[in-house]
Amino acid sequence: MPGTTTLWRPTGPAELDLVAASGWREWPPRLPEQPIFYPVLNVDYAIKIARDWNVPHSGAGFVTEFDVDTDFVSRYPVQQAGGRDILELWVPAEELPEFNRHIVGTIRVTHTFPETA
Predict the structure, then answer these.
(1) What superkingdom does the record give (predicted)?
(2) What H or E segment, with its residue span, contains residue 88?
């Protein structure tokens, strides 16, 4: 069995609905204004985005966790998007179908942040 790398993805309800419709097996195609798919390398960064960005913009935020074949995912260099722990992979939108084929198992929701009153 190949080795896997765990990644996280903060997301809003619309994208999460599309993931659920796929049987929790793949990420939906990017929209025209989204040329890159950004999974992140640590859960704390994913939580911050889901809570501080997704909730105000879409009413809820979710953190998902998923595993990808390590040999495949190593083609994407780690990008430091800010501080030392703000690490992402930048997957071009046109490569997302192939990326999805290398997900091992299912995409799992690990944290949910509803809008607060």
Answers:
(1) Bacteria
(2) strand 87-89
